[in-house]
Design a protein that fits this description.
By secondary structure, this protein is of the alpha/beta class. It has one domain (2-152, 172-199, 252-259): Rossmann fold (3-Layer(aba) Sandwich), CATH 3.40.50.150. It has twelve helices and eight strands. Strands 1, 2, 3, 4, 5, 6, 7 and 8 form an eight-stranded mixed beta sheet that branches. Strand 4 (112-118), helix 7 (127-137) and strand 5 (138-150) form a beta-alpha-beta unit. The longest helix is centred in the middle third of the chain and has 14 residues, at 155-168. Mean pLDDT is 92; it is low at 1-5. This is Class I SAM-dependent methyltransferase. Keywords: Methyltransferase, Transferase. It holds the Pfam family Methyltransf_11. InterPro entries: Methyltransf_11 (IPR013216), SAM-dependent_MTases_sf (IPR029063).
């Protein structure tokens, strides 16, 4: 796939390839109230065929596989898929594993009853293409469930959190705003059914060490957070003690749409 030659996608493959097991066990990815909400929001029928894009550790697949006939877990990174399979193969037998680019899916039009993607699109260089691909492979009336970190509408806050993510993980592209996602949904022919914006707390020591490669890089991330002004500290609830960062909070959006 030509799209995979893009530098950001190469960085994603490198980052997730060497940290695949960390993403399986990561509390950020393996826990969360959103996982238990997936079956309720999707209301899948027993014959449903579902696609999970950028499956990571396979946590979404684990939550929805008992409610569907067949689930396709896809990821750009081979090692990540291997880790997901090790995590899932003993508990579910209706899962297929496919290497796939979220912006150039290897599936025919109108194939799936539902498409999901969780905590991944901020790595995609062209999220609008991803949304259009999700619409293309969905059957008419099919459901698209997106969960991801989002940027605040305020430019200063947007710049700060996206810079923070990039310093900590060079494969980060951009956390987008709800307004941006809403436009892309409309352009792709989706109707927004329900959505929930919420705050997500990161345990900073675990979060920063998941993707950084040196103590020097960690110091750079620390410096960025510790340099925050009062407005930023308040918005992201940056919790410190004696210049040691304990936790902070970001915005997350869970949105369910249907294909017209």
């Amino acid at each position: 796939m030509k799209e995979q030659s893009e530098p950001i996608k190469q960085k994603v493959q490198e980052q997730f390839g060497k940290n695949s097991e960390k993403y399986v066990t990561s509390s950020t990815h393996s826990k969360g109230s959103d996982l238990s909400l997936l079956p309720e929001w999707l209301t899948l029928h027993s014959e449903a065929i579902v696609l999970d894009i950028a499956t990571g550790g396979g946590h979404v697949v684990k939550a929805i596989a008992p409610h569907a006939a067949q689930v396709f877990a896809t990821d750009l990174t081979y090692q990540m898929l291997q880790a997901a399979k090790r995590h899932l193969e003993k508990s579910q037998s209706n899962i297929s594993y496919v290497i796939a680019d979220a912006e150039l899916l290897p599936f025919l039009d109108n194939t799936f009853d539902a498409v999901t993607c969780r905590i991944a699109p901020h790595h995609f260089p062209h999220p609008d293409k991803f949304v259009k691909e999700a619409a293309r492979v969905l059957k008419p009336g099919g459901k698209f469930l997106l969960i991801d970190n989002i940027a605040p509408q305020d430019k200063e806050l947007d710049d700060f959190v996206n810079r923070l993510e990039k310093l900590r993980d060079d494969s980060h592209n951009r956390s987008c705003s709800i307004n941006e996602w809403t436009v892309w949904f409309e352009e792709a022919g989706f109707t927004l059914l329900k959505a929930e914006a919420r705050k997500k707390t990161f345990d900073y020591p675990e979060w920063v060490r998941r993707t950084t490669t040196s103590e020097e890089q960690i110091k750079t991330v620390n410096k960025h957070l510790l340099s925050a002004n009062d407005k930023i500290i308040d918005y992201f609830s940056i919790n410190t003690s004696n210049d040691s960062i304990k936790s902070f909070v970001i915005d997350e959006w869970m949105a369910l749409s249907s294909k017209k």
